[in-house]
Amino acid sequence: MSDNLCGGLPPEICEQLNKEEQFIKIKVEKRRYGKEVTIIEGLSGSDVELKKIASELKSKLAAGGTVKNGKIELQGDHRERVKELLMKMGYPESNIIIIE
């Protein structure tokens, strides 16, 4: 991140402020043959950053997944676990919404 976006704040503080401004929605969709897919939307950042987050989630959840159209898709129903992992990554609990 450039210093212009954060007014000269250190990058760590700038990154945390960015995380606090994001509202993340976690939902499950049923796909073909009754397969469930957890969809995480509302994360801002480049495709590279989203792929990094997706990669970390996939390894912690032992699930497959991908990044499509600015959303992370994970195979299976992982709503609660994804919320816990995102909170450990520094996203505030109040900004993470699980859609039933």
Describe, in plain words, how this protein is organized in 3D.
Belongs to the SUI1 family. GO terms for molecular function: mRNA binding; translation initiation factor activity. InterPro entries: DENR/SUI1_TIF, SUI1, SUI1_arc, SUI1_arc_bac, SUI1_dom_sf. The chain has four helices and five strands. It is an alpha+beta fold. The protein has one domain: SUI1-like domain (Translation Initiation Factor Eif1, 2-Layer Sandwich), CATH 3.30.780. Strands 3-4-2-1-5 form a five-stranded mixed β-sheet, covered by helices on one side. A hairpin with a 5-residue loop joins strand 1 and strand 2.
Secondary-structure arrangement, i.e. CATH architecture: 2-Layer Sandwich
| Uncertain residue segments | none
CATH superfamily: SUI1-like domain
Determine the structural class based on helices, strands and strand pairing: alpha+beta
Strand order within the widest beta sheet = 3-4-2-1-5
Principal-axis shape equals elongated
Q: State the CATH class.
A: Alpha Beta
Order of helices and strands: HHEEHEEHE
What topology emerges from the helices and strands here?
Elements (H helix, E strand, L loop, with lengths): L2 H4 L4 H10 L3 E7 L5 E6 L5 H15 L3 E4 L2 E5 L3 H10 L7 E3 L2
Parallel strand pairs: 1-5
Antiparallel strand pairs: 1-2, 2-4, 3-4
Can you give me a brief rundown of this structure?
With 100 residues, the protein is of the alpha+beta class. Helices cover 39% and strands 25% of the residues.
Features:
4 helices, alpha+beta, 100 residues, single chain, 5 strands, Translation Initiation Factor Eif1
